[in-house]
Every structure is written in C-alpha cells, then in structure tokens.
Predict the structure.
Amino acid sequence: MIRGLRVFTEMISQCEHDVVVRAIDLKFGKRRYERDHWDGVITNFRETEFQASFPCFERIEELLQSLGAGKLQTPHALDLAPNGHIDPHIDSVKFSGSTVAVLSLVNAATLRLGPSELRVEPRSLYVLQDEARYDHEHAILPEGRRLSLIFRDEVASER
C-alpha cells in the first residue's frame, strides 16, 4: 500500500448516499456532459461546486481534519458519463492543498495509483496525502456512470 492512501468503506449510509445523489442530480439538471476538461485529464464529464449541508459532510470534514487536512474548499461534484474517464494525473498544487479526498457514489470504479490498483465501491471515501498525493499519478477507470464528490483543503498560502 502506498503511504498516504487511506480508504474508508461505507463512509456514508445507503440512505445518505441516495439523498446526496438526488441533490447532485438536481443541481446538474439537464446540463450536458463536456467532452474535455481544461487540463486534458477528464473526458465526458459534468462538474460543479456543490455547497450543501449534510451530516455526512460534517463527518467527512471532521475525519479529514483529524488526518491533518486544513480548511476545506467547497466540494466539487464530478459526474463521469459511462464512457468518461480520468487519465493519470497529480492534482495541481495551485488549486489543492495537502489533502485530496473522494467520496465515491453510484457505481464502483478502479483507482489506479502509481503501480497499484484498488477497487473503490460506492459510499467509500479514499484520501490521498503525502506520497500518495504528491508522488504518484492517479486515474479512475469507471464501471458505468461515476458520480463523486471531491474534498480538497486550501493551498497553504490561502489558509
């Protein structure tokens, strides 16, 4: 296992999952999937900031801060179409601090982190810090539509 990778299975309940998914779907509405992301890493996706107050978000924030994360930015909802994907990359240090955490929703996917592969199930949260955050590219190989919420802490100069 790569240092700095943590996985929390069943981070949220099925009921919380369903409520969050409905809320994100309402936010996206009929918005179309985009073919290319500005950084060339994501294809066939929809993305938006998702500011909402759910008890499960408070639990996630408390967990991340217990792991050393700074103040969190507004979460981003990322919706990959069934033919979408996220190519290997390291999240930019210009836009994200020392912690990147992803709450997986809807369908399972494979997280490829450096030489390792890990299946991430819906309702699980994976956290990238330290070596996992800075030294290894990660990619997502979805199994059907993939919806996720991305939690990042602020860049150190913004804290």
Remarks:
- The helical segments are 14-28, 55-66, 130-134.
- The beta strands are 5-8, 34-36, 42-49, 76-89, 100-105, 109-113, 116-120, 125-128, 138-142, 146-152.
